[in-house]
Amino acid sequence: MEGKQRVLLFAKGFPPTDGGVESYSWELARALKELTIRPIVITQFVGRVGPQLHRGIPVINLGPGNQALVFIKMLTWAVRMRRTRQFAWLYATTWRVAIPGMIAFPRKPIGITAHGREVVVPSGLLKLLMKVVLGRATQVFAVSRYTRDVMRDRKVISPQTGVVNWNGLSGDAANWHIRSTSSDDNTQLFTICRLVPRKNVRGAIEAIALLRRQNRLGNCRYIIAGRGEDETALRNLVAQHNLEDVIQLVGYRTDEEVTAYFQSTDVFVHPQIVLKDGADFEGFGLVVAEAMSYGIPVIAGRDGGTADFVQNGQNGILVDGHAIPEIADAIEQLVQSPKRRNQLGSSGRHWVSENLSWSKHAKKILVGLSSA
Q1: 139 and 188: one domain?
Q2: CA distances from 220 to 235, 266, 317, 369 (A)
Q3: Is the separation of the CB atoms in 58 and 32 below 8 Å?
Q4: How many domains does the chain have?
Q5: What is the torsional sign of CA 70, 71, 75, 78?
Q6: What strands lie across the sheet with 298-301, from one edge to the other?
Q7: Residue 1 falls within a domain, yes or no?
Q8: Are residues 335 and 267 in the same domain?
Q9: Cβ(24)–Cβ(93) under 8 Å?
Q10: Is the pLDDT of residue 372 over 80?
Q11: pTM for this structure?
Q12: What is the pLDDT of residue 255?
């Protein structure tokens, strides 16, 4: 490709607002820039309204408003961009924000990322609109095989549509660390996530309770970081099982604190499940991949996108999140065997370092749209 292509990126959200899609939008914009693409992002976040530079990326912050108002603002800016800029192609980080781009630039190639539940929850007229938008896209990039297959099964996209494009990893994976657990040292289990039902932190707590009742727990402690609608219920569950000496819910933690937890963790636990008749699921499981990048052995649910990169028994352990004894057996296996932890942790780190990067993610999009 000659010179730098200019790309208009439509993003549901953007840092400093926290969230998975917000982080994704930033990582994609940054990766495109590193590939000599010139992205301009139209988005919404808490902060100064209007055009600005965000860590070197040109961003237009639409400011506060409900969905209808934000849509009008996004369309207005897209039309303004069409009059003043030339763009090689467009990209939308979710299907809904693709609509203003399609209206303002009806003939431009456009790509859309499909993460997970946002492409299966809509019903009725909204589902029909989504199918029209996804059908109009030049390419739909699903973050996992699971997401792509669910979309195909539900006829959201055609059987021939959908390219799997794994998310990348952020930060310096060279900071990985595995503790060497001795007989008088506690094995540290760690979970960080939004505390919502599909993350199934309840299942992990119930597994710890089962191990204690059967005198199989060994020396370990379990730290749970994050906030969400399940937090109060999970605290009550810990108290109900008298596990306060083993399990600690620490709430929200800064990036630096999370890094410190990862560096002192022996086993990462994330036994996610699928809920709402398959509509609520883990599209990728980025935090599981992040744990693997530190060389931490992972226990993950077999449902959802994590099965794309957690190979059961080779670089991690996959469990049926609904089967408490299965989660318990996996925890016991890794608590009791530092050697097994090291084997799985090393294999996991190697796999994600070889296969997951934002540069690869952006290149796949670039190839798919630049040739359109």
Answers
A1: no
A2: 18, 10, 18, 49
A3: no
A4: 2
A5: positive
A6: 247-251, 220-225, 187-192, 267-270, 298-301, 317-319
A7: no
A8: yes
A9: yes
A10: no
A11: 0.89
A12: 84
